[in-house]
Amino acid sequence: MQAKEILQAHIAKTISLTDEQFDYLFSHFKQRSFKKGQVIIAAGDKIDHEYFVLDGCLKSFYINDDLKMFILQFAMPTWWASDYNALYSQTKATINLDCITDAEVLCLSNDDREKLCNEIHQVEHFFRWRTNRGYVASQKRLLSFMNNDAKHRYEELLALYPALYNIVPKHLIAAYLGVSRETLSRLYHS
Amino acid sequence: MQAKEILQAHIAKTISLTDEQFDYLFSHFKQRSFKKGQVIIAAGDKIDHEYFVLDGCLKSFYINDDLKMFILQFAMPTWWASDYNALYSQTKATINLDCITDAEVLCLSNDDREKLCNEIHQVEHFFRWRTNRGYVASQKRLLSFMNNDAKHRYEELLALYPALYNIVPKHLIAAYLGVSRETLSRLYHS
DNA sequence: TTTTAAATGTGATGTAGGTCACGTAAGTTC
DNA sequence: GAACTTACGTGACCTACATCACATTTAAAA
């Protein structure tokens, strides 16, 4: 499936656009290919785009002062990723974004998103709902963090995204769950 | 300050509405008074409103199977609160909302919000930005959970909302930080 | 004012998960 | 295919925080 069709199918789940409107919308996206391991956003960057995943798997993550990595999101096809704090507030990135596998993405600049939201009411509606879902998911994950132990969170993650288990190295899954790789290893060998 | 002025000042930070538009918007809100301890949303409820705090302090929280409480949010004046998962997905509430102090709130139904977002593009813009901020805040809190110990999170909370310390009982602060009340007590006595 | 309930402090003890150390296996690169 | 790097497993030990138990202080209710 082509980039255009993938995006169209994704957006059609939330809003209806005419073909002309969608063509206009799509004309603001730029397609890019990345290799496994390639960095899309590095902490400290000035940042002005968000990314829609067509193929492959990205990760967004934070590195603390002890160089420990915490993964915020695994971005699979039809997911959006960026450092939204930096993007919305026009500050430098504190979150990194890179490629776990080779990846195809569509890039949309912050300015273009805001322009499109302003020009096409339905597009603003789409982005409101996208963020709604992200917000709810983030709250759920926060609750799971407070409520459940590592084993429970691990099983939750696998139930939600079985594909991850085969694509993503275990130490990254540990960094998502917020446990050490040693602890994760012990969890699923018992 | 009157309810109308409080809401108007709050909304004006993000969008510009004509007086007629704002009057129309405001006509969809219903003002209600609650007493300390009163429940606004109980888990299991069918739920169709969100709440804008004019005065007082609310808490939204989850109770797990062991009857342990986890606080998602302390809602202070000009904050919005609800069980957004239940509200958006039209399912029964899993989150509770009640009053830490006597409170004045404005109620907006889910249907009216969607109607207003549809009728007035700027209103949709407002709600998109409100959720953006919520999403970013939620991600920051998630990161802090993974990255920092309880003492660090406690100091972070006090730095961000100094007012809480005097208004909110310590065991509720513990339930927000995700530690036991005993641990919290030990943290600030050393 | 008395009674009752809620909030808080503090010791003793248990445990999930971290850290360090060192091993093997499996991909990558030359 | 050898050399090197990255991923993964597992034991020994440590630490932050939970839990339980009980005392005390404060606030609400009668």
Total helical segments of chain A: 9
Task: Give the ordered list of helices and strands of chain A.
Answer: HHEEEEEEHEEHHHHHH
Main sheet strand line-up of chain A: 1-8-3-6
Total strands of chain A: 8
Shape of chain A: globular
On the 0-100 scale, what is the average pLDDT of chain A? 96
Oligomeric state of the chains present here: homodimer
Q: Report the structural category of chain A.
A: alpha+beta
Q: Strand portion of chain A, in percent?
A: 15-25%
Major sheet attributes of chain A? 4 strands, antiparallel
Please bin the fraction of helical residues of chain A.
Answer: 40-55%
- Please name the two chains that share the biggest interface, counting residues whose Cβ lies under 8 Å from a Cβ on the partner chain: A-B, 32 and 32 residues
Instruction: Please report the distance between the alpha carbons of the first and last residues of chain A.
Output: 41 Å
User: How much is the radius of gyration of chain A in Å?
Assistant: 17 Å
User: Unreliable runs of chain A, pLDDT <50, ≥5 residues?
Assistant: none
List keywords for this structure.
DNA-binding; homodimer; globular; four-stranded antiparallel sheet; 190 residues; alpha+beta
Descriptive account of the structure:
Two copies of one chain form a homodimer. In chain A, 48% of the residues lie in helices and 22% in strands. The first copy, chain A, is built from nine helices and eight strands. The relative contact order of chain A is 0.15. By secondary structure, the first copy, chain A, is an alpha+beta fold. In chain A, the strands form two sheets. Chain A has a four-stranded antiparallel β-sheet. The first copy, chain A, has a four-stranded antiparallel β-sheet with strand order 2-7-4-5. The mean pLDDT of chain A is 96. The first copy, chain A, is globular and about 55 Å long. The termini of chain A are far apart. In chain A, strand 4 and strand 5 (69-75) form a beta hairpin. The A-B interface holds A 62, 64, 68, 70, 72, 84-85, 88-89, 117-118, 121, 124-125, 127-128, 131-136, 138-143, 145-147, 178 and B 62, 64, 68, 70, 72, 84-85, 88-89, 117-118, 121, 124-125, 127-128, 131-136, 138-143, 145-147, 178. The structure holds a DNA duplex (30 and 30 nucleotides).
